[in-house]
Every structure is written in structure tokens, then in C-alpha cells.
Amino acid sequence: MLPEYIKQIEIAKSKKAETKKFLDRLRKLKPADLDVVTNELHDQAFTHIDCLQCANCCKTTGPLLKGKDIERLAKHFSEKPSSFTEKYLRIDEDGDYVFKKMPCPFLGSDNYCGVYEDRPSACRNYPHTQQRNILQKLSITYHNTMICPAVAEVVEELKKKYL
Predict the structure, then answer these.
(1) Helix axes 16-29, 149-162, angle to 10 degrees
(2) Is 150 within 8 Å of 42 (Cβ atoms)?
């Protein structure tokens, strides 16, 4: 991971309490333009942040895999879903399917995803700052500030706009 990405994540971790307080306040404010602003900040962040130079999400945070994800990945490997599940997945404390271990078993040493076209929906949607209904995703956004340098940057910019 690039040193500047590590620094952004370290700063985000050091601001955990501040960020949580800000996002709780933002949730109460319910700004009408939050989706538009967050989506613009997401696009802006990804003009200079390169996931292939980071991949921290793939190294540290496993996605929840739904039935369709398991079916798609099993098909990718020409396996039965039950065989794929036995080989790669476990059920977590919430009853969700997750990878047995991290980093993601499909992450290459070059940070490329070996199943990119068939990756789980949670991976497709990550880091969730490019979606609608951001207000409902503020809890996950809080956690993602400490994983993804782009989310850390988006939230810092949101603070400037809404504080």
C-alpha cells in the first residue's frame, strides 16, 4: 500500500471519535443534498486514489456473500455451490457467509481480483460512497474511513461542508 494511503487511514483511525460524532450529527441533520455531494466527493477522490495501489478492503474486510454471489462464484470455478461454500466460506456470528480467512482468497499479489467479473455484490458496491441513500449507510461509512483512504477523504470533505 502506498505510504500516503497508510497515512490517510492512520489519520482516520486517530479521528474515530470526531468522525463518529460528526456522522451522528449528519444523520440528524438529514441534508437534502447529501447523496449528490457524497457522490461528487467519491468521484473526486477516485481521480487520484488507485484501488490497485491499496486493496486494503480485500486484505482486511471480507464481504458478506449472498446466495447469488455463491452461485456466481461457484459457476466461475465450475463447482457446485456446496463445494465452493465448503472450500472458501464459513458462517459468521451473525449467520452470514464470509470468507474463511483474509486476505480474500482471490486477491492476487498484484492486488488484482482473480474473480473481478464475478465478484460478490458487496465488493461491487464497495465503498458505498457512490450510491444513493447515503444517510442509511453512515454506519458502514464510519467503519470504511478506517479501511479505505478514499472514504476517509470523502468524510473529511463532508466535515468541511457540513460542520
Answers:
(1) 60
(2) yes
How far is residue 107's CA from residue 162's CA, in Å, rounded to a whole number? Answer: 37
Query: Is residue 31 classed as helix, strand or coil in its secondary structure?
Result: coil
DSSP 8-state secondary structure symbol assigned to residue 113: B
pLDDT > 90? residue 123 = yes
Helix count and strand count (H, E) for the chain: 9, 2
What are the grid coordinates assigned to 152, written together? 476517509
CA–CA–CA angle 140, 144, 150 (5° rounding): 130
Tell me if the pTM is above 0.85: yes
Any idea where the domains of the chain sit in the sequence? 3-58+127-162, 64-125
Q: Which amino acid is at 98?
A: V
Q: Exposure of 150 by Cβ count < 10 A (0-12 exposed, 13-18 middle, 19+ buried)?
A: buried
